[in-house]
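Give me the fold.
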Amino acid sequence: MRAPVKLYLASSNPGKLGEFRALAAAAAPSLRVELELPPRFDELPSFDENAPTFAENAAGKALHYSRLQEGMVFADDSGLVVPALGGAPGVHSARYVGPGATNAQRIEKLLCEMRGMTGNERDAYFVCAIALAQKGRAIAVVTDRVDGEILESPRGAGGFGYDPIFYFPALKKTFAELSAEEKNQFSHRGKAFHKLLTALSSML
């Protein structure tokens, strides 16, 4: 049996690591991966995510930390896109209100911006880009998305970010109402990570 491939997630967030570990367990049983956080990540020089696209932010972050960490490093950037708002909040999804804002405050601002919008104007999609790099060289960059619509008020107690107002018609639930298994299967992050593992498997 092929030995596991070790990948380092460019993050200090153990919750995000746990989510990717769950995705790895479900997505590609033919490729065994071990996911870890880089040691002393918070002591490394930080990367400023100020590119105009999710893919550029993910690639820049992966390249940056792969120069500081041995082995293969992957990084993600994701967010919510509302075409009727010109693509906002987009790459600024986490900073839509400002530093230190809560998820509830970001949701409140988005709902205020969309007040009076109906029908197709409420269409939206989540995007996730994931990049893999080693020693300052890009190995793969993948993206995926999931389409839905923005409700007028939150529903559900799960998830995070904009999940309570993102309605997924295929399951007739918001992302905050999905089980962990459903979200791993249908989410933008789950689909993008599956793409990454598939691409990596074909290279090994």
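The first strand starts at residue 5 and ends at 9.
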